[in-house]
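ARCHIVE CARD
Drawer: 12
Card no.: 0347
Subject: one protein chain, sequence and derived structure
Cross-reference: see card 0346
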Amino acid sequence: MIARFRSSLSRLGAVLRAVAGAPDYARYLAHMRSAHPRARIMTETEFNRSRLVARYDSVGSRCC
């Protein structure tokens, strides 16, 4: 029962991070290793920075 609760809590956390737009470095790593095995993998800091830039530096992302 505790394992089921932890699993549900983990899934809920993943959903909340996705809704909030928080980058998922573990998912990025899995994708890069399976789809692009020879490509350079960004560090977690580089990944987070690239996601922020993509989110806020695009046309139309500002209100003013």
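Annotation on reverse: The CA atoms of residues 21 and 55 lie 9 Å apart. Helices lie at 2-20, 25-35, 44-56.
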